[in-house]
Amino acid sequence: MSTGSEKVLIIGLGGAGGKVVSRIASQKISGLGTAVIDSDRAALAEMDPNVAVLEAGSNLSWGRGTGCGGNIIRGEQAVSGERQRIMELISGKKFIIVVAGLGGGISTGGIRTLASTIRAKKIPSVFMLTTPFSFESFSRRKAASESIEQLLPVTDILIRLPNDLLFSMLSPDCPVEEAFAKSCDELARTAIGICGLMNCKNSFNTDYAGFMAILRGRKCQCALGVGLAVPTEQTPDRSAAAIQKVLASPFLGGVDKMAEADVMIISLFAGPGLPLGEMKRTFESVAAFAGKNTEVISGFSTAPFMANALQVVVVTVHYDESEKTKAAEPAAVVTEKKETPVRRAPRKKKASPELEQGMLELTNYSKGFFVNTVPVMYGDQDLDIPTYQRRGIIIDQGHTSS
Ligand SMILES: Nc1nc2c(ncn2[C@@H]2O[C@H](COP(=O)(O)OP(=O)(O)OP(=O)(O)O)[C@@H](O)[C@H]2O)c(=O)[nH]1
Ligand SMILES: [Mg+2]
Asked: What residue owns the CA closest to ligand 1's atom 27?
């Protein structure tokens, strides 16, 4: 199986990933290869003819080309058994995007093997994963979130898109099939947008390294909006038109999400000759939606095939609470390490506090109840009388010698 000579490869894993990748393949974008890994033969048969398909698990006892039926262990077995073919599939690639809907059998079970295989080949990659709707089963949601935990150490860039964000943008009357179809269109646009983003040669910070610095190993949720516009007679301002589309993106979750973001990445992609004024105006218009604590990072790139089109990609990153506290920790450690060792002065002895308690007069008290008992004698000494009295010892009054 071959994906051709394209240096960038988008891999769909499982049903949702496959649908997205099939849409991307149908656009025949030059330089972009597509592949799908699934154990569901029927789903693979529906792929665009440009997609390289890898049927996983057909040699296993349960594998009859019917999919994993939500069974994560089967998903893991199916993908682990295809390590060699996956190696061949990704060989020679410069950059890989993986798209999958976590929660399913092959996607949740197989994603780790796919990630570790890509890492073993040292190919830069971005994982774009949806997490299940809140109405899906608890076990699916739990499996998805555990899968994210396991993936963090083996991925560089993990973009986690909660499917629930779709609800915030689509009307409740929207038919389910339409909602899913729209989401796949959006994910396809997003994946293509990310490819543009990673190729930002003129970017300030929005290239692969910049993304890695923000996302690597950190638990976060992302939201993403893509808007592409060309100037027309009705809408001559392509920047405003592209921003409008970004704001309407279902995976952006609305302007409130932008204001709450910890990081906002704005990237422009246009044909050669992008005017400075238009670039500045676009960045400023999008950045106006950021909150006062949002760190805004922006970048741009140009390519001849974009002609007079302008694409705006906005990624917002919302760190989990635990990550926010973690972020403060390394700084503290670094400061401590750089500190010049201080020679400690010899410890001073603590000054003893002044004795405040009054003196108790030392007198002989009556033996009380024991006055008529036979005294305990040792030689001529009555042992019932305290030793200091018997021997006439002067009691230390509590002051130290210094
Ligand atoms: N946004 C979006 N999410 C989807 C779509 N289809 C499925 N999902 C999500 O992706 C998750 C996994 O679904 P699939 O990709 O069909 O599952 P799979 O990996 O093929 O799993 P098995 O068939 O059990 O091997 C679901 O739980 C949904 O949350 C879709 O069309 N759009
Ligand atoms: Mg499936």
From this structure: 103
- For the stretch 208-214, contacts whose Cβ atoms lie closer than 8 Å and that sit 24 or more positions apart, written own/partner, are 208/95, 208/124, 208/156, 208/157, 210/265, 210/297, 210/299, 211/126, 211/157, 211/265, 212/156, 212/157, 214/263, 214/265, 214/297, 214/317
Q: Which residue from 187, 168, 99, 158 is spatially nearest to 323, judged by alpha carbons?
A: 158
How far is ligand 1, taken at its centre, from the CA of residue 88, in Å? 26
- Structure tokens given for 312: 């705006």
Q: Which residues surround ligand 2, an ion (CB under 5 A)?
A: 15, 40, 67
Phi then psi dihedrals of residue 313, to 5 deg: -120, 130
Q: What is the pTM of this model?
A: 0.74
Pocket-forming residues, ligand 1, beta carbon under 6 Å:
14-16, 19, 40, 67-70, 75, 101, 103-107, 130, 132-133, 136, 140, 163, 180, 183-184
Cα 130 to Cα 35: distance, rounded to the nearest angstrom? 18
Highest averaged pLDDT of the listed ranges 174-178, 289-293, 349-353, 379-383: 289-293
Domains present along the chain, CATH in parentheses: 1-155 (3.40.50.1440)
pLDDT 10s digits, 259-314: 999 999 898 888 889 999 999 999 999 999 999 999 998 888 887 878 999 999 89
Q: Which ligand 1 atom sits closest to the C-alpha of 184?
A: 32
